[in-house]
Amino acid sequence: MRYYLIAGEASGDLHGANLMKEILLLDPNAEFRFWGGDAMLDISNNIVTHYKDVAFMGFLEVIKHLPLILRKIKKCKKDIEAFNPDRIVLIDYPGFNMRIAEWAKPKGYEVTFYISPTIWAWKKKRGWKLKKTVDKMIVILPFEKEVYKKYNMEAHYVGHPLLDAIEQFEADLTFKKKYKIETGKVLALLPGSRVQEVEKILPIMGAAIDHMDEEVHLLLACTKHVPRKVYEQALEKVKNRNIQYIIAETYDILNIADAALVSSGTATLETALFKVPQVVCYKTSTISYHIARSLVDLEYMSLVNLIMDRPVVAEFLQDDFTLENLIPELADIMGPKRAKILADYDELINKLGSSGASHRVAEIVLR
Fold first, then answer.
1. How is 185-232 classified by DSSP, letter by letter?
2. Domain-located, residue 84
3. Smallest Cα–Cα separation from 57: which of 100, 17, 95?
4. For 158-202, how does the pLDDT look when each residue is reduced to its tens digit (9 = 90+)?
5. Could you tell me if 78 and 49 lie in one domain?
6. Does residue 235 share a domain with residue 346?
7. For the chain, what is the domain count?
């Protein structure tokens, strides 16, 4: 069969790649065409657009790039018609993908939405639209199946695909030697995968590390789609020069880290699954933040706290993301709070269930 997949972010690219691997096991003659990134490119070279060209953060940034986004949607529709897939799989990226679903379903394409829009957090009426425009809804958070019952819509809960990604991860046994890490603790810095995130979040992370013990190894998780100069400019006022810029080795960093400063998003859950105590950080433009807060009905921002429904890790968002808050919390997670956080992580992992989500998704897509 022919499969058209759309992922618009780094996390979607990871989940898309794992899904493609599983589809090939069930359908060895599968043909793919997709929007995604490097992970999906490792499976197939039939890419339409790389996510780095369509990943924008915050309301203002989306509005600013709206003409480009609308052109991409138009391009996507034409490309789907030309490819004529048997299955369309929309992976997260709701602003874009819901528009594609709304167009594709009436044309007779079978539409699967993998990783639900957060209708439980904001714009709850989207649930009714999804009921009309999606054939199969696949959810990855334990509470989401119940959410869809309110819309008289079946949702397939498959577990979280990050469990698959981390289970398949093979640690680089030379990693510590490669980066000259012999003794001392390791602090991981994960400022996000978009330029806008790095520019807003990394300067404050950097200011905090000037207060760290010199024996602590500072490992900055970089993505190759953010130019190095963006990281360097964000850290230009930092006095501590003991920072190693490491590209596309985030899991190896987390595998040896003692603590982490993490931009809110999928990385918060990845960090928890590697059992690394963390502080969650988030900052965007003031207008974008206040618009979001007025629309979003959520007590927590990070996936860790959302799934556990309690504050397992500290979240410093927008005006609370300050040195005054960050420095003492960082000291706590590397000391007295560490054991409690690790115990909570064990409970979180139990809640997420078993690995194999990507295989279960593939089975649903092929039905």
1. -EEEEE--SSHHHHHHHHHHHHHHHTTS-TTSEEEEEE-TTS-HHHHH
2. yes
3. 95
4. 999 999 999 999 999 999 999 999 888 999 999 998 898 999 999
5. yes
6. yes
7. 2
